[in-house]
Structure formats: C-alpha cells, structure tokens
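seq:
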Amino acid sequence: VPNDNNQVSHLIRLIDDRDEFVRTKVREQLIHIGEDALPFLQIATRTENLNLRALASEIIQAILPGQLGEKFRQLVLSARGGDIDLEQGVIFLMQFRYPGTGPEKIPALLDKIAEKLGSRLNPDDSPQQVVQQMTRLLFIEEGFAGNDSSYTDPDNSYFNKVLERKTGIPITLSALCLLIARRLHLPIVGVGLPGHYIVKYASATDPIYFDPFHQGRILQRKDCIRLVESVGHQFEEHHLSQATHRETLVRMMNNLVAAYDQTNELEKSRHLKEYINILLGSPRSFPANSP
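struct:
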C-alpha cells in the first residue's frame, strides 16, 4: 500500500462514508497503513464532526497495540540477549492504556526524585542509612503508598498513574525504587517473592530486604519466608534472588492480564499476552498492525 499523504487524506475523508462497505474497507486500509496514518487520524479526532471523531479514535485504538508490539520486540532486540531496559519497558506499557501521555514525563519525574535523594546521601553512608533515606523520602515525604483499597485497579500497573496518584501495588512501587536507585548507582534490586514483590539492598554479606508496599518496612529473612507461605507457596531459597527486569515487566503484564480478565476486557488481555510472548522470546509472531 503506498503510504503517501494524499492517499491517507483521501481515506480519512471516507471514514464516515454512508456506505458500510466503504467504511469497513477504509478502516482496514488505515489499520494496514498503521503508524503513518496516526497524525492524520489525530487531526480527525479534533474536527467538529462528532461521528468522524469517534471513528478516528476507534481506528487509532486499533492501530496502537500492533505498534506497541513492535516496540517491545525492539526492546528485546536491543538487549542483545541480556536484560531489558526496565524504564523503557514501563513507558511502553503505560502507552498501552495512555497513548497520549508523553514518554518524556516519566524520566523527568524520576530524575527529580533521584536528585532529592542524591542530595541527602553521603559516600560513607551504610546500606542501612541509604535504605532509610530512600524509604523516608518516598513513603513519608513524597507520600507514595500501597493501594490497599483498590488493589486490582489496572491503574496501579501504569507508571504515569502511579507517579500521579502516588499509589501502586508491590511491583510498581518496587520498580519506583529500582529506577531511582539506578540513577544513583545504588545496588538496589527487585526480589519477586510469589504474591508480593519486594526490594533488597544487595550487600554481599548482609542484604537488606524492604517492602515498598508497606512504607518500605524492613523485612528479616523470616518475614520474607512468612510472606511466601502466606500465599500458599512452599518457601525456596531462589525466591530471595534478584529478579531480572524482563521477569519484572512480564509480571506487571500478568497482573494486568488478571485485572482485565476479571472485568471481561478480553481484547486488552489478549494484546498483553502477545507482549508477554514477545518478551519471553516466543516464536509466535505479533501481526504488525493487528486490529
């Protein structure tokens, strides 16, 4: 399909044609064109014609999942067999539900918080002091907290909403700690306990485990074991090892799959499963611009 601007402009004018056959064909063609059609469709969402606006929005929503699938594939390729970039991953995931949110907003907000924390740390601080400063800043001064009242709300998994509302679930609040720590070169890593993701300061001799969902409270090894057993799992030593960024992003997506399955939003759930397959390197291909 030649993706020239004239052709796209012509198709846009036919989006709300009276003939249903024409409308269907135009929709298919625009979805096939994909990314190149988006600027024109976005203009159409701002016209006075309400029907045209609604149809253009619907076509944009049909194009975006395939486009995102390609971004996740590039994320995996750029890792060159190593771990993926978690920050890039949570930004792409955010665009699944909030495509209009500027991706630059997330790094800017994280930079700001990291700058505050950095100004309070000294080179000779002990791991305990570092953890204490981080948890005080994030969970007392900045007011981030676990969303106990609406735990299954999908917005707990989208990073723009976590930063905006200052609430999240264990994994997104832990990711917040990881992304702040990365900026300051602190050895803070994720720990994917079954049912409850936490964080640890990875000291070779005496790691410090803490729980961002509960204001960063310090956890002893026995507390971690209790957390695992409380969700019906038998504790195994590997539960305390460092989670990869890829595992973390897949787990965020699985949380969303569960949330959307619960509300019967099966189309969203299907797209997220496709992204999980891409991240796990599944041979199943993701159609370039699937509706």
